[in-house]
Amino acid sequence: MLFETPRIEQEWGSEKLFPMTATIVHDAQTYALARWDWTFFLTCIWRSITEDIGLEGSGIHPAWRAVDVRDRDQAPDAIADVTKYLNGKYVYDPTRPRLVVCYSKPHGSGPHLHIQAHRRTALKTAAA
């Protein structure tokens, strides 16, 4: 995995990072590398509301539970495939089945994956 800045690389190794978020990102990176030869470029870790606003972020996500990965040269098919893979494997919150662990949208500086976890996020087979 590559990192946009040294700060993001340091934050990736922080004990504050939600463990399930890290697990899902590692799973996605392994899948993307094997299937698409895609090495993730981690561009953002969503921090606590106070930290995020202090860094001019949106402040909308629970502390350290969401990340963004991007590759401007990656094919839309690869982005859609990794999104489908993650949402087929994990349930974000069984009490809110419409929410997902991964979504992708072509906005900001280009297409990216937004990967997020909830305290109840689990493998779908374990959640059933």
Write structural notes for this entry.
The structure is a single chain. This protein is α+β, with helices and mostly antiparallel strands and about 130 residues long. It has one domain (about 1-125): Muramoyl-pentapeptide Carboxypeptidase, domain 2 (2-Layer Sandwich). The chain has 5 helices and 7 strands; from the N terminus they run E-H-H-E-H-E-H-E-E-E-E-H. It has helices at about 5-10, 20-35, 50-55, 75-90, 125, and strands at about 1-5, 40-45, 65-70, 90, 100-105, 110-115, 120-125. The strands form 2 sheets. Strands 1-2-3-6-5 form a 5-stranded mixed sheet. A two-stranded antiparallel sheet has the order 4-7. Strand 5 and strand 6 form a beta hairpin. Helix 2 packs across helix 4. The longest helix has 18 residues, at about 20-35.
Task: Using brief descriptors, characterize the structure shown.
single chain, 128 residues, alpha+beta, Muramoyl-pentapeptide Carboxypeptidase, domain 2, five-stranded mixed β-sheet, two-stranded antiparallel ribbon
